[in-house]
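Morning, I've got a small favour to ask if you have a moment. I owe you a coffee for this, so here goes:
>
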Amino acid sequence: MRTLYHLPLDPYSRKIRILLGEKKIEVDLRVEQTWERREAFLALNPAGTVPVLEEAGGAVVAHSQTIAEYLDETVPEPVMIAGTAIERAEVRRLCHWFDDKFNREVTEHLLGEKMMKRFLGLGEPNSEAIRAGHANLDTHLSYIGYIADRRVWLAGDRFSLADITAAAHISAIDYLGDVPWEDYQEAKQWYARIKSRPSFRPLLADYVPGMRPPPHYEDLDF
């Protein structure tokens, strides 16, 4: 059986967990506390980051987008990067948007300050960074709403890796209770459709000791 080394609230890990669920691939999930810098884990991925997918035969694939494209090539149904060349390019553009821009402007400011600092004992959250994260989140939710109002899914007519990537990042912030859903109805409706997918439900069962999510977090009807 494949093994996925992950962290429950890490959006990159969540991206691969959703994808595995969509493709109905069974894996052994192993939580990897990356800050411990375990030698055995560093031997698998010298970068020391999750997610890391280890095949039953011992082959290792690291980095979420690399894993996603690898799985889409080796387990092609359902295809998550599909369509014409320009349609596939749009899927990849949006994956990069959320994995890079959203992560840098929102996730690092909110999840990093509110949760990772706590785990790593790095002191109190930076209120300026949190304010910046909230302001940036508003911009991104508006962008999601703009796209969702004009397309069936974020990258077009098909559910794709772009939706998975965006939802993985949003879900981690939603766990903190920081998403003002009532102000962004188009984005909320898009997220609700993803939240109700069977592949997404295991994520809603994740809990961080001492920090429970808001009541709506695991409510499929919001």
